[in-house]
Amino acid sequence: MDKGILVVISGFSGAGKGTVIKKLLSESDDYWLSVSMTTRAPRPGEEDGKDYFFVTHEKFEQTIAENGLIEYAQFAGNYYGTPKAAVEQKINEGKNVILEIEIQGARNIRKLYPESVLVFITPPTADELERRLKGRGTETEEKIAARLSRAFEESEGIDEYDYIVVNDDLDKCVRDVLDTIDTAKRQPFRNEGFIDSLIKGLEKYHK
Ligand code: 5GP
Fold first, then answer.
1. Pairing of strands 78-83, 37-38
2. In this predicted model, what pLDDT tens digit does every residue of 161-180 receive, in sequence order?
3. Residue 163 CA neighbour count, 13 Å, CB half
4. CB-CB neighbours of 95 under 10 Å
5. Which residues of 103-131 are buried (b: 16+ CB within 10 A; e: fewer)?
6. Mean pLDDT across 108-118
7. Domain that holds residue 60
């Protein structure tokens, strides 16, 4: 069985990437979404073990020390990290594993897994980003300002991603992300095993 690939999906907080990923998962069984560990408090409606594993600072640092995370980063004053065991298991089972993480994490994943695909989802404009963040109604003005400021910082790293997808229309955005991943999977460097055996198979015809 072929192994799955790692798909990093980043985007400004408020870009709607959570909604895009949810829809994508409902449309295809080939994908699995990694549940991150975080020290931030749950938002209303968020469930432990489903949206995140919500833990204390102590527990997070203990998990780092035990080498239990593939990557981790600090964002808006909290730790966020990707648990290692589940991701490796799903990849081995042939699932494409989605990591919904920010740019420092994306950079680390690129280094550790060069064949991973990095996708950045963005609203069409900066004004639209502000509108969506305010519309969510779950955060204070101060937190929204911090997230917008962070968005500016993250915008400088966008060119490190393989693909940028604009989230204007949800269905189109999901289609674009799936097309993007399909295209990425066909890139020669992600198919070395396949190419080697094809060349070996053709060798016998060579005169
Ligand atoms: P939020 O607090 O809005 O759920 O997430 C804040 C940011 O942390 C988002 O950009 C999200 O993608 C990122 N994030 C969530 N989980 C992880 C993780 O495991 N690792 C890293 N590096 N970033 C994460």
1. antiparallel
2. 999 999 999 999 999 999 99
3. 21
4. 18
5. bbbbbbbbeebeebbbbbbbbeeeebbbe
6. 93
7. 35-93
Q: Which H helix or E strand runs over 74? A: strand 69-75
- 138 with 178, same domain? yes
Give the nearest ligand 1 atom to 78 CA: 2
CATH number at residue 70: 3.30.63.10
Cα 105-106-110 angle, rounded to 5 deg? 120
Using the atom order of ligand 1, give the atom closest to the CA of residue 51. Answer: 4
Q: Ligand 1: which of 36, 50, 80 to mutate, judged by most atoms within 8 Å of the beta carbon? A: 80
Question: If you take atom 1 of ligand 1, which residue's CA is the nearest one?
Answer: 13
Check residue 112 and give left, alpha or beta (phi > 0: left; psi -120 to 50: alpha). alpha
The amino acid sitting at 14 is G
Would you state the structure tokens that stand for residue 53, as one six-digit string? 């594993």
**Which two three-digit tokens encode residue 207?**
């005169």
Question: What pTM did the predictor assign?
Answer: 0.88
Summarize the confidence of residues 126-146 as an average pLDDT: 88
Spatial CA neighbour of 24 closest among 178, 207, 172, 169? 178
